[in-house]
Amino acid sequence: MKQEYTITVHTENHIGLLNRIAIIFSRRKINVQSMNTSPSEIPGIHRFTIVINESEEVVVKLIRQIEKQVEVLKARYNTNDEIIWQELALYKVSTDMIADKISVERLLREYGARAVVIRRDFVIFEVSGHREETERLVKFFEPHGLIEFVRTARVAITKSSQGFHQTLKEFEEKEPGTDRVVENKYLDKNEEVFSM
Amino acid sequence: MSSSQQDTAVLKKPVEEKKEKMISGSEAVMLSLLEEGVDTIFGYPGGAIMPIYDSLYDFSEKIKHILVRHEQGGIHAAQGFARSSGKVGVVFATSGPGATNLVTGLADALIDSTPVVCVTGQVFAHLLGTDAFQETDVINITTPVTKWNYQVTDASEICSVLAKAFYIAKSGRPGPVLIDITKNAQIQKIKYDGYSKCDHIRSYRPKPKIRNEYIVQAAELINKAERPFVIFGQGIILGKAENEFKAFLEKSGIPAAWTILGLSALPTDHPLNVGMLGMHGNYGPNVLTNECDVLIAIGMRFDDRVTGRLDKYAKQAKVVHLDIDPAEIDKNVKSTVPVWGDCKETLPMLTKLMEKRDHSKWVSRFKEYMKEEVQLVINDELNPSTEKMTMGEVINILNELTKGDAVIVTDVGQHQMVACRYARFTQSKSNITSGGLGTMGFALPAAIGAKFGAPDRTVVAIIGDGGFQMTLQELGTIMQSGVDVKILILNNEFLGMVRQWQQLFHDKRYSFVDITSPDFVMIAKGYGIDGQRVSDRTNLKAALKTMLDHKGSYLLEVMVGKENNVFPMVPQGCSVAEIRLK
Fold this sequence. Notes:
The complex is a heterodimer of chains A (196) and B (582). Chain A is an alpha+beta fold. Helices cover 30% and strands 35% of the residues of chain A. Chain B has 3 domains: 22-191, Thiamin diphosphate (ThDP)-binding fold, Pyr/PP domains (Rossmann fold, 3-Layer(aba) Sandwich), CATH 3.40.50.970; 212-365, Rossmann fold (3-Layer(aba) Sandwich); 389-563, Rossmann fold. Chain B has 582 residues and is of the alpha/beta class. Chains A and B meet through helix 1 and helix 2 of A and strand 6 of B.
C-alpha cells in the first residue's frame, strides 16, 4: 500500500551527492514530493530529508540503493506518525488589499501567520506547519490576490527520544571527518589564468 | 601548501619553484598509478588530457600505454584486462567526446561489477560551465553509471582521490570509478610527500558485517534439505572464492548451476556442475529450479534473464542468498535467510556447518534432463547433419583444440549464448562477456585487454558479424600493439538473436536484421592480420588449428547456417519451468 514516507539520509558533505541521491528516485520514475538538505547537529555530517509516496517494499529497496552510495552514512525511513515535521511558507500580498479587505488580527490568530515584512506596497506573511495548514492560507488569500507564494521542503525529526543523535555522535567521535570540500576557486579568475 | 601558492601555480606569472619535491598534478597521477601497481593503461589522448600524456611520456618504461582506436574500445579493453587478471583496469581519455565515449563501457562495468578506474581530462577549472571547447559535464553524465566519480580542480587532491578511486573500484562489490581532472590541476605544481593507499572511508561499507546467526540458520536449512540447489554468479570469481566454493559443494554434495558471469568459476567437468541457468540455459537447471526445496544463490543477483517470470520462480523453495551487496538481497527474489558478506568468508563458515551429504539421486535428475536435452537439442547443434555449419560445432571443435584452457571472450547475441552453453573451462576468469548490459561490440576490445591481463593464455574472441562491425576499428590497436588475439567470427549474415525473436514472436517479420558485411578477412589483411574464411565443415578443424597455432593475431570467419536458433529458450514472460526445447 502506498503512503507517505519520510526518508532521512545522513551523509558526508560532497559535491554531486545530491544528484546521486536524486537519480535513485528519478531512474525509477518516482516523484519526489519534497527534498531538503541541511546540516545535522554533528559538524561535518549532512542530512537529507526526502518525502515520497510509495509502498514500504519499494522504500526499503530505495533505502538500500541510497546506502550503497559511497558518501552515505545511513539512510532511514519513517511513516508520518513516527515523526514531527514542518514546512514553512511565505505569502506576498498587497498592502492595500490587506488594509481594505482582511482582518489582519483574524489572519494572525486563525492561521498562525506572522508578518515578516510590512511595506507600503506589500506585506509578507509566514506560516509554518503541515501541508494542510500552509495550504489553508493560500486558499484564503487566493480570492483577494496572492502576488507570490513559496513553500519549503519538509523538515522532520523523529519522535523517538534519542533519535539518531547518539549513534551519529559516537560515529563522529570514533571517525572524525577528514574530507574537506574543495570548490572551484578559478571561476572568477579567467582573466588571470593561462589557458589554451 | 597554502592556497595562495596553489593559485599562483596556474597564473600567468609562474613563481620560480625551487623546492626539489615539487611535481605537477600530471606527475602525481603517474606516481599514484605506479603506487597502485598499474602497469597497463588503455587510452586515447586529446587536448584536455595532454599534460597527463606529457607526463606519461616520462613513465613509458614503467607503464605500458595501449593506444586504442576509440575510447569505448579503451574501456572495454580495461574491462577485459580486469576480468582476466583480477586487477583494476585503467583508462585515459580526454574531455568532451573522449569522456562521453566511455559511457557505454562504464554502464557495462557497473552492471557487471568490473573494477575500472577512468581518468578523464577536463577543461580548465575557470572554463567549467562556459561551453568551452570539448567541455562536457562528465561528472553528471557518468553519475548513474559509476560506483563513484569525482572532479579534481586542485592538484593537491590528486593522490588522495586516486587512492580512493582504486580502493572503491576494487573493494566490496567492484565497479567503475571516473576521476575527471581539470587541465589547470594537471599543470599545477604541488609538493609531493609520498603516496598513501586508501583502505578505509568512514561512510563506505564495502563488506557488510557477517551475522553468524544467519550462517547457522542457512546451514540448518541446507542440512535439512532433500533437494538443495546452488546457483552461482560472478561473486565467486570476484571474491576469489573458487576453492572455498568447491569445498562447500563437495562437502554438501549439492548440484550447482551458473549464470553466464559465473561461468568458469567451477570447472565444466566438475561432477556437481549441472550447467547453465536462464533464458538459454540448460533444461535441467531451469526446470528443477521450480522443484528444489532450498535454493542457495551465491554471488548472483537474480537477473530477469535468469529468473524468467518472477511470480512463478522457485516459489516452492526456501531461498538462501549470499551476497556482498545488501541492495541485492530481496531486490528481486525474497530470501528466507539473507547471508550478507564476502563469500570468501561466508562460504567456509557455512561449509564448516555442513553435514556431509550425498544427493546423487537428486543430481541424477539433472543428468536425466541433460540426456533429453542432448537428444533433442545438443546433438544437432554439436554434430549437425545439416549442410550448413552450426555455431555449436565450431565451439565444440574449439574445445577439443584448446582443451578448455583458453580465455573465451564473447560479444552479444546468439554466438554468445552458444559459446557460453558449449565452451568448456578448466580454470576461473576464463569467460569474459558482456552479461548485464549486453553490449554489442564488447568482445574485440575486451579480448585485447584480456590478453594484456593474462599474457600467457590463449585468448579467443568469439564475435558475431553484427557485433564485430561495431568496434572493428580496434583491429588497429591489435596491429599497433602486436597483441595476440584470436578472432573467431561466427557469421550467419543476420542480427541473429533479434531475427530469432522476430521468427518466434513477431510472425517472422524480419525487420532490419538482414545485415551486410564487408570481407572481414580482407579488412584484417588491411590491418596486417592474417585470416581466412571457412564455409565448408571439412576445413573447419584445420582452420581452427591454424588460427590457434598462428603466431600472433588471426581472424577466422566461419559461415554458419543463416536461420539457426538457440535453444532451449525460456520465452520472455514465461516461467523457467516453461523452457522450450524447440
